[in-house]
Amino acid sequence: MPLPLYQVDAFTDRPFAGNPAAVCLLPAPRDAAFLQSVATEMNLAETAFLVRRGATPADGWDLRWFTPAVEVALCGHATLASAHVLWQRGELAADETARFHTLSGVLTAEQRGDWIVLDFPAEPPAEMPEPPPVLQEALGAELLWVGRNRFDYFALLRDAAAVDALAPDFRALGTLPVRGVIATAPAALPPFDFVSRFFAPAAGIDEDPVTGSAHCALGPFWRDRLGKDEMLARQVSRRGGTIRVRVRGDRTELGGQAVTVLQGELAD
Q1: What pLDDT was estimated at residue 55?
Q2: Which residues of the chain, if any, have pLDDT below 50?
Q3: How far, CA to CA in Å, does 62 sit from each of 111, 129, 133?
Q4: Could you tell me if 152 and 103 lie in one domain?
């Protein structure tokens, strides 16, 4: 039976920007080898796989995320893309909440006007008094503060221009014992509060265009420094993307938009 398959640009309001994700709807769970093969074939930063749990939207969907190389425990842009597809297909009414059962617990998404808001865990970084020397060498920039959460290394740079100018040694970054590296600095111009880039060569992605899960760390970090719970962020990759961030205790709300660019079927 052919499987519905979509490609969605997430954290953008126009095609060919933001972060592309594939979304595949499955009638029943499939083994990890099959899911990894599909994700490798799609060759996007993430491919999301959805399986309906029950007869009503309240039962939710099982959701798994795969890069071309590995399964990951948390992904923002492919969750945003998945929710977008469910509303687009009429699987959910416009006022119904999408509920996803994932390796990071239950995550939700709801529509607020033209935006989709994800409810994700906060993942603040803890300072590393002695960061690995290879991190600064691989980034090739002065690091003002270095931290780590359960997923990534986190590097504060001098300014937005320094983040823009990064040309990392991806081979060296890929040797670090983390999913990826977040580089960030204050934004140079309004309306943005901070900028970032995200590198994950160990997960098969040299630079991720827009990384929702990285903002689970960026939100708490900048909330403490800027003294505000609601912020507007810009990930300054080549494709670029905009994320609304709101920190609520141990949760982080991530707001974004999404556009479907491809729709078809996966031969099975």
Answers
A1: 84
A2: none
A3: 20, 39, 40
A4: no
Note the pLDDT of residue 138.
Answer: 97
- Residue 189: its pLDDT value, please? 92
Residue 186: count of CB within 10 angstroms of its CB = 17
The alpha-helical segments, DSSP class H, found in the chain are 32-42, 77-89, 133-139, 160-164, 170-173, 215-226
Q: Which domain holds residue 77?
A: 3-117+255-266
Q: Looking at residue 144, what is its pLDDT?
A: 97
pTM of the model: 0.95
Three-state DSSP class for residue 37: helix
95 contacts 191 by C-beta, under 8 angstroms: no
CB atoms within 10 A of CB 189: 8
The CATH number of whichever domain residue 36 belongs to comes to 3.10.310.10
Annotated active-site residue in 46, 110, 123, 253 = 46
In the chain, the number of structural domains is 2
Look up 46 and say whether it is catalytic. yes
Tokens read off for 123: 């993942």
